[in-house]
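Quick log. Single chain, no ligands specified.
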Amino acid sequence: MAKNKNFTFESLVPTKSTEQSAPVNQPAAIVALQDNGPSTKVTFDCPNELVETMKDYGYWEGMSQKDIIIEALGVFFEDKKIKERPEKVKMRKKVGRKPKALKAFLN
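-> predicted structure:
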């Protein structure tokens, strides 16, 4: 016979004790980067040893690979002065396959 479990649902409105706050070891700049605004998917080759290390770290720390990479990039760029690319370079035609919808339109 299954045991009866009584579930209680807490309010979805954050209270002062449950407000989102940055973990002690995470700089505010990294927290600001996470889950704010539009994002872009990125694909790149990475040595297998680094991927395995990242997976192991993520497992024990309860972090996703995405969170680990965003945090690492945030720490890397934190103390750097970055000059913006020229507009001409930003607006350059993208290399790669054309989207399927555009292929059908062009044929």
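Helices lie at 28-33, 48-61, 65-77, 87-90, 100-106.
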